[in-house]
Every structure is written in C-alpha cells, then in structure tokens.
Amino acid sequence: ALSNVPPLRNYFLEEENYKSIQRPPGDIMFLLVQRFGELMRKLWNPRNFKAHVSPHEMLQAVVLCSKKNFQITKQGDGVDFLSWFLNALHSALGGTKKKKKTIVTDVFQGSMRIFTKKLPHPDLVSTWIGPEWGFLTPMEVSEPRLPQPAEEKAQLLQNAEYQEMMVESTFMYLTLDLPTAPLYKDEKEQLIIPQVPLFSILAKFNGATEKEYKTYKENFLKRFQLTKLPPYLIFCIKRFTKNNFFVEKNPTIVNFPITNVDLREYLSEEVQAAHANTTYDLIANIVHDGKPSEGSYRIHVLHHGTGKWYELQDLQVTDILPQMITLSEAYIQIWKRREEDETNQQGA
Fold this sequence. Notes:
This protein is 26% helix and 28% strand. By secondary structure, it is an alpha+beta fold. It folds into 2 domains: 1-107, no CATH class; 109-122 and 148-341, Cysteine proteinases (Cathepsin B, Chain A). Strands 5, 9, 13, 14, 15, 16, 17 and 18 form an 8-stranded mixed beta sheet that branches.
C-alpha cells in the first residue's frame, strides 16, 4: 500500500535522497531505510525479469530492527506494524518528534487538538453522607443516610483537577472506533453483521463528540478536533479488542464512498481557510479476512494511470469493481487529498 503513495515512492526510488544521511555508529535502523528503498526500486523497475518481487531482505531488516517484535514466521497486527514502521522510517531518516521533518511526516502527518476532562470516580460521586451533610463517622453507620446531593457533585467538578484541558498533538493515522457488534442472532440463527457509514465513525473528530476512556484508576472524557490535514490520510478501523483471555474481532461493515470524501467540517473554524482542498479519494484499502489469530490480509489498490482497481493477495492479482471494495471488512485505508488541478478536472 505504501508503494502506491507517489511522494513516498518517488523519494525512495532515488537513492541519492537518503544516501548521505549520517547515523550514529552501530545504528542498525538505517538498514530499514536501505532495504525499503531497494524494495521500491524492484517493484517499480520497468525491466524486471520476473513478474513478482521477493521482499525477503526487507522482512529480515524488519525482524532485526524491531528486535523480533515482528517476525517472518508469525503474522502480526497490521496497524501495529504500520505504526512502528512509519515511526522507525521517520527516525532512521533523521527526523525528530517536533522539529526535524522527513518525507514520512511531510506525506502522512496531520495535527489535532485533544480536549480532556477528568471525571470524578463513580464511588466518590455516589458517596453516602450523614444527617449533618458531613462524611460518615463510625457512630453514624446505623443512622439514616441520604445520597450525596447534585450540588456536591457540581462543586466537585469546579475543582481545577476536573477542568477541561487542551493539548496540540500530531498524528500519522486516525483510529476510527466501530460500534459494538450485536450479540443476538437473526431468525436463521446467524449473527447479524451490522453496517455503519464512514461519516458516523468520523464524527469522533468533529470537536463536539465526547468519548469516555477508562484506566485502572481514572476516567476521562475526550473529544478531538482536526487542525491540519496531511496530503495522504490513513484511517485505521479498530476491529480488534483485547482482554485478558482472547482477541475479539468486530465484523461491522463500514460503508464508504471511493471518492469525494470532504473532511472540512472536522477542521476547527479558524484553520478551514488555510485548507484550500479538503476532499479525499481512496487509493488503497487493506482488508482482514477470517479469525483474529488465523486470518489473512488482502489489499485493494488503485492504478493511478488507468483508474482501475486491483486486488492483491500474495502472488494473486485480479481486477475488482469499485462497488465490491465497499463490501469488504476494511482495516486500513489510505486516502489522497485532491489538488486544485484535479478538482477542476473532476468538475469539468
């Protein structure tokens, strides 16, 4: 999928772009850059003798640089790998978290505001108190008790600890949360596979929708608002949830258009003017099929020259209709922002 992103591909096709980058002695992470560049040049070589390319050297570099967190013999999670790989490439190219940018951040990095508000502990809110509106003493245990009034809770929320805080943050991809899958079966004793529109799960980033996040000791309400959209936007649809016992997969189908996804309404008002174009078109769609631990991946990619879609799985490459792409269990998507000339051509 990353090889189908023209700016990233073009950068790694020219070895001179990164050949002179100086790394500390003993640093093995630059091997990842070298192997990824070699793979790009093999994939896009018009004079390849064979119709397929072996990524073996690239996979060995991944195993080495990830300290065996990702292995050739064991399938890992696609989102975990994507997150690690993009950050590892950025770091190996000399990038830093804030100041120094690389081709990775130029292509994929956007920014957002995160508003966080701490919630009182449920046990604290429902504290029982005695007749004198004070905390219970051992002598008052047997006396009539009343629940803490709403005024007490309101007063508690006025404390600085529970005020909403805002931080600016960058992102390489946006995580989209799916609604909980139904537990009940239909009349044919088959599990109902729900469907949800893309814009419903994108509402998480409209600056108004609040979502509760729980830790082992504290609860928070968070809301998100985008402040900068990157040229290429990655969506990661959260299909897997882990608990202490197993990994569960959510089979919800996301209904999305292939083109013309306008994200202007998710930007804060003061930055909308700085974004001339906020319309995106899909260029890659990664699908996970099967069970969480035993499933397989396939990818849909757009051929930019012809506008045709192809489905790739291992060595199999087949044509696919755009209408069929929306019926798949999409897991990772890459969207390309339209530029002025492309918008004018679409309008014509």
